[in-house]
Design a protein that fits this description.
By secondary structure, the chain is α/β, with parallel strands linked by helices. 37% of the residues lie in helices and 23% in strands.
């Protein structure tokens, strides 16, 4: 068995979930500015996530789910995941985004698992609060380490793919480290760099 871990936003999905949600309430530019700084490593991920989610307060959960169910896939996502599974990989998604998106997409893509965050709501309305499994700068690395221990998988058998600063913590635990259209902070630590929006290019590197 081998392990492949994909980021979700701007990796498996073409865009940032929270920006699609922010567009609904007319604050996309404000949220994008915070997201960009966080992905470049200029802001603490936890603080930036809390700030961005607070701006979504009042949005209906039904609206959130409708948007999340219709997010655009990154070109080559389905084919790449299927081929990796044929090659013996367990394919997992780690996302600093939200289960409203990662759960339906895990089903659509046939992923073996997903770990992400939860938008808190009350009476069908977002409260502006968030919690979950991927809240901090090092959450992905810590979760990857735990999965490797549980599954008995080494760094030599691990492939990780991401685009932003909060994916960096995974690199410590993987021999195959892919920057997929990534920010400079991630690209300089990667040993596989892909600059085209086509996930199938990963298959040529493994």
């Amino acid at each position: 068995m081998k392990l492949a871990v994909f980021d979700f936003d701007s990796t498996l999905m073409d865009g940032e979930t929270i920006e699609f949600l922010a567009r609904e309430v007319g604050i996309e530019d404000k949220v994008r500015e915070i997201t960009t700084k966080a992905m470049q490593g200029e802001l603490d991920f936890f603080e930036s996530l809390q700030k961005r989610v607070s701006l979504l307060k009042g949005l209906k959960v039904e609206t959130v789910n409708n948007i999340c169910n219709n997010l655009p896939l990154m070109p080559g996502a389905k084919e790449t995941i299927k081929e990796l599974q044929i090659k013996g990989y367990k394919v997992i998604c780690f996302s600093g985004g939200f289960k409203n998106a990662t759960i339906p997409f895990a089903e659509k893509l046939g992923l073996d698992g997903e770990f992400s965050n939860i938008l808190h709501s009350k009476d069908g309305i977002l409260t502006g609060l968030v919690g979950g499994e991927m809240m901090f700068n090092d959450s992905k690395g810590q979760m990857l380490y735990r999965l490797q221990k549980i599954l008995g998988i080494t760094s030599a058998e691990t492939l990780v793919i991401g685009d932003g600063a909060n994916d960096l913590s995974m690199f410590k635990y993987a021999d195959k480290r892919v920057s997929f259209c990534g920010k400079p902070i991630l690209e300089k630590e990667a040993n596989i760099v892909i600059k085209e929006k086509d996930l199938r290019l990963i298959l040529k590197t493994i």
